[in-house]
Structure of NRDC protein:
Amino acid sequence: LDTLEKWVTEIFSEIPNNGLPKPSFDHLTQPFDTPEFHKLYRVVPIRKVHSLSITWALPPQEQYYRVKPLHYISWLVGHEGKGSVLSFLRKKFWALALYGGNGETGFEQNSTYSIFSISVTLTDEGYKHFYEVAHVVFQYVKMLQKRGPEKRQVIWEEIQKIEANEFHYQEQTDPVDYVESLCENMQLFQKEDFLTGDQLLFEYKPEV
């Protein structure tokens, strides 16, 4: 560690600090022409696959990294057991798979906005009923909104434990990739969370 510290000091200490704060774009609260979002776009696929994608542009969520609200919502939306959206759609023979969430990349999450998407892989029959499929997805999201998160702390704690297990038993990554990831984290999180901020859930805040 002493050798590494010496190298870092030698290589980077001569880089001047301009003393300027990190740029923020959080004043740009409407990056998208949102009326254009209230439309259905049909895209002809290259592969023979039917996919329905529903995308929301949300206020920026990156400051809530200790809570990870979008991760929590995607967990509920992506649930495949009894009472889930996918279970219902499979019984109708309308869908093969469903997943939702935020990619946590710079494009999908930043200081200006956050993207949340739900994607459904449709059967041929599901393609004929894609309006009904979209309706079911919106109904489920509405139900989550109405019921609220108060009674779901157990689910949040379950997600927290699973993510903690994955963090503690993850395979060793390529050192260069790991350093790059840490450098990105240093721009986003408090210093005590540089190693864990992108993976672990720390606080349960239902209001968020």
The chain is about 40% helix and 10% strand.
